[in-house]
Amino acid sequence: MITVHHLTNSHSHVVLWLMEELGLPYEMVLHRRDPVTRRSPDSLRAIHPAAKAPTIEDNGLAMVESTGVLLYLLEAYGEGRLRPAPGTADAMRFYQWLTFIEGSAKGPAMQFVRLAMGQADDAMRDMIAQAAAASFGLIEAALDGAETIVPGQFTAADIQLTFFEELLEGFGQIDNWPNMKAHLARMREREAYKRAEAKGGAVDLKGLFAGTTK
After folding, report:
1. b or e along 200-209 (b: 16 or more beta carbons within 10 Å of the residue's beta carbon)?
2. H helices within 23-150, ranges in order?
3. Whole-model pTM?
4. 37 burial type by CB count under 10 A (0-12 exposed, 13-18 middle, 19+ buried)
5. CA atoms within 13 A on the CB side of 85
6. Rounded to whole angstroms, how far apart are CA atoms 43 and 41?
7. For burial by CB atoms within 10 Å, which of 75, 119, 159, 214 has the most?
8. pLDDT tens digit string along 125-173?
């Protein structure tokens, strides 16, 4: 059975959600953040030296990195679900957005922590804002008039995108991107999303970043 090592209020929610969408049996091991530092505990490092969430165990191995984990689970157990058919235009869109979210878009998003903790006249502020607008704008445009990031079908890319949107919400930036904000609201209404939160705890990045964002 797959073991999902879940860190409270973290990216590992996407793996719980995927497992619930696929209806796969799994064991969840809960790891709690330090209440003061909010860092991940040493118990995660005992599973994998990267000490990251999400972490899964399967076939006697531990694996980290959310995009890799999602793709592995889809290929090993998905039976064609939550992804477009291989070799299609939609498959190209799926792979593009699944990797773009954690690549080109994630870096500028995390820079908002620097801005929140830095000085108002930080010389990098405009550059960071411009980089964010360029990356986020592509996602926002892709969602224009679409319910999902791959038009017409819910995929694991929507799962990955939802956590990205929750990051923006935690940084106080989501209102700048109405299509992403609407997508986030839709995804939170999915029953599998709710089951994942019931098991692993609510995703509250506003609370996690409280005191660090302005």
Report:
1. bbebebeebb
2. 42-45, 66-77, 89-100, 106-117, 125-142
3. 0.91
4. exposed
5. 1
6. 5
7. 159
8. 777 778 788 899 999 999 999 999 999 999 999 999 999 999 999 988 8
